[in-house]
Structure formats: structure tokens, C-alpha cells
Predict the structure.
Amino acid sequence: MLTRPKKRLMPKRKGVLKKIILGTIGLLVLFIIALFVNYKIFEKNWSSVSLGQPIVNYGERRAALLVVDIQEGTTGDVSRNSFYKKNADGLIEKINHISDVFKNRNYLILYIRSEISNPLINLLDNSYAKGSLGAEFDKRLKLDSGLEVVKIGNDSFINSTLDSILTRNKINDLYIVGLDAAYCINITSKAAKNRNYHISLIEEAILSESEVVKDSMMIDFRNRGIQILSINSINIVE
């Protein structure tokens, strides 16, 4: 039986196919480079500490409570951190109690959460992507008596409304609770120190990725002149 010889791919078709393959590889390489560069920039900005402007002497101490990163993506239903989730109920109960103390004395309360809008970063990790459940406050947190601040990194002051709110209300005394002692609370405390705020951390209402890390950070905070308080010894200056 006679068979027709198979048609060989025309050189022109081969050239087109080669161009498509090389173009696809080139686009993929460019995408990976863009992703890498974006991640490195994000990583640097995420951990940077702002200098800010030193606050003026208001003549009297005025306090505000900062509640940091109590979100669905950290302590809530979509959290990937088992230690945070395990300790979330007790932590949030304490924070809500402290918030009530501040509310009853008409002190400012600021609820601060992380939100990431960079689509390339969200491809790598969408835990705090803008519009996602993880970027929202934990539903157990009382939010009926405070202002919301959205931040984009560990430093709560960078590209947020925190500076302007504190200045407008002539705040110079910050009480901080939430997480993480080694990251957001650590960096935010450094930025607040740069602005000459008096800082107090309420130990039982702060969490880190382990008790060992938290204990180490508490020693570091004390060495930096930051006051560490217990929940039963909160003394808000009138």
C-alpha cells in the first residue's frame, strides 16, 4: 500500500513558532524579574522605620490607645498562624477590656490594620490583600468607639493617617496593644520614639510568635526606655 510522505514543517512556520516560544519565555523572565524587584522593594519598605516630626510640647499628657493588627488574617478565621489563633480569644478579651477603660474615660482609641494593594505581592501572599477577609478586623474586636487606621507596613505611621490624627488631638502618650511584639509593635514603637511620644506597652495584651520571642522583646523594649505595664496597673494620666 502506497502512503503519502509526511509533509515537513515549512521553515517559515518553524520560524514563527520559535519566535512565539522565545517571546513567551522572555515575558516569563521579565515577569519573574518584576516580581522579584517588587518583593525586594516591598520587603525593605515593610520593615523601614520613619523619622517623622517631633511632636510639640502640649503642656499636659494626653493619651491614646493603639490596637495593632487584630485582623482576620492574623488572629481570625483565615489566619495561617496557629500560635496566634490558639491565643486569640484571651488576647482579644483583654484588648476589649482595655478599650472599654479608654472609652469610659473618653480617650482616643485607634484600631490599626494592615492592607496590601500591590497585585504582584498579593500573588505571592494574599493574606492581607485589599478587599480580602484577611485585611479586615477580627470580628471579635469591639470597634464601636474608635477610629480606623490602615497601614502598609510594620510602621503604623508610614503613608497612613496616624500622624495627623495624633497631632490633631494633641496626643503625646501612647498605649499599645496587639501584635506582633517583634514586628509591627516593635517598628511602630521605634517610629513613635522618633517623634518623642511617651510609650507604654500593656504586656498581657501583646502577642508574638512564641512566648520566648515575646519575653526577649519585652527586655529589649525596657532597655529602650519603653514602659511595660500589666493590665491591672494601667494608670492613664488625666
Observations:
- The chain has a mean pLDDT of 86.
